[in-house]
Amino acid sequence: MPGRRLANPQGLLLVCAVMKSLVTGGAGFIGSHLVDALLRRGDEVTIFDDLSSGSRENLASALASGATLVEGDICDADRIQAAVNDFNPGTIFHLAAQGEVRRSIDEPAFDASVNVVGAVNVIDAGQKAGLDRFVFASTGGAIYGEGDRLDLPAAESSLLEPLCPYGLSKMVGEKYLELYRRMYMFNSVALRFGNVYGPRQNPKGEAGVVAIFCELLKQGGRPVVFGDGTQTRDYVYVDDVVEAIVAASRTDVEGAINVGTGVEISLLQLLEALAKHSPEGKGFEPEFDEKRPGEVMRIAIDPSRAGLELGWSPSTSLEAGLKETLDAL
């Protein structure tokens, strides 16, 4: 059947003619990089995005290369169902989300409306359309909770104790995928991303500290660190993440898979790495403010399962990734 794939016993999906891929949130940071990669693979791509945080600028190359943009809100069940029915994709990549921890704390109902109700709308639309594969963008940075209680880097089997509504809403999305597997044999995978960074990340929000710091560095500004700067994150470069997403779409592997480096990097270490790129060798000294509630002190996620099941491992060093990010500004 054109545009469809069949699974073989080894779990690899066999490509049958042109792939048709729908990417929700495809105008955003990660989504637009994914769209570009799918087009390079030869896919026919439709982007579903309300452009609330993404932009047409991110899609300039993709639209010129034949991708289609459908403007819509994933909270509108009829709109997303119509888009899925009209395009009839083999794979849905669900990246559209409310992605800010702070906003999820301030507006938990809004967070749930987008990340739970919106996700269910997309999942259900795919199931009703007879979708082959569903790839869900989850979180490794917020779903596990405080890393001090874990044996880091956290494995997928670790107890999930999110500290903010954002982490909880992503966990609920994963639970809906589990339910749909039991009810409908729905073929899906949830990728738990570390702290993704790279070109096109929006420095105006609060979700991308690397983008915020890189813009300040370019402008000669001074970064603000909430807490003492010893808090750690697992920073993973966007191109590596996209490789993992594409690899996951080619398999029948199910459940949760971490997509990170497994390495803890503190904010102070991040600033030290960025300071090497400061104009005229000037320092990049931070100002300190009070720690914000809902944010973990330590986290890193174990990518071993991604290596075993997807044949994926991160290949971009922090130094190289920061340089690429700064050069793109």
Tell me the structural class: alpha/beta
CATH topology of the domain at 18-194 and 235-260 and 301-315, what is it called? Rossmann fold
Tell me which CATH architecture of the domain at 18-194 and 235-260 and 301-315 applies here.
3-Layer(aba) Sandwich
CATH superfamily of the domain at 18-194 and 235-260 and 301-315: NAD(P)-binding Rossmann-like Domain
Q: Could you give the order of strands across the largest sheet? A: 5-4-3-6-7-8-13
Question: End-to-end distance, in Å?
Answer: 43 Å
Tally of individual helices: 11
Describe the structure.
This protein has helices at 29-41, 60-64, 77-87, 101-106, 108-128, 165-184, 209-219, 238-249, 267-275, 304-310, 318-328, and strands at 5-7, 13-15, 20-24, 44-49, 68-71, 91-94, 133-139, 188-193, 195-197, 224-226, 232-233, 235-237, 255-259, 265-266, 287-289. Helix 1 packs across helix 8 and helix 3 (77-87) packs parallel to helix 5 (108-128). The chain has a seven-stranded parallel sheet, sandwiched between helices. By secondary structure, it is α/β, with parallel strands linked by helices. Helix 1 links the parallel strand 3 and strand 4. Residues 1-16 have low confidence and may be disordered. 38% of the residues lie in helices and 18% in strands. The chain has a domain at 18-194 and 235-260 and 301-315: 3-Layer(aba) Sandwich (Rossmann fold), CATH 3.40.50.
Give the SSE layout.
Blueprint: E1 5-7, E2 13-15, E3 20-24, H1 29-41, E4 44-49, H2 60-64, E5 68-71, H3 77-87, E6 91-94, H4 101-106, H5 108-128, E7 133-139, H6 165-184, E8 188-193, E9 195-197, H7 209-219, E10 224-226, E11 232-233, E12 235-237, H8 238-249, E13 255-259, E14 265-266, H9 267-275, E15 287-289, H10 304-310, H11 318-328
Parallel strand pairs: 3-4, 3-6, 4-5, 6-7, 7-8, 8-13, 9-12, 10-15
Antiparallel strand pairs: 1-2, 11-14
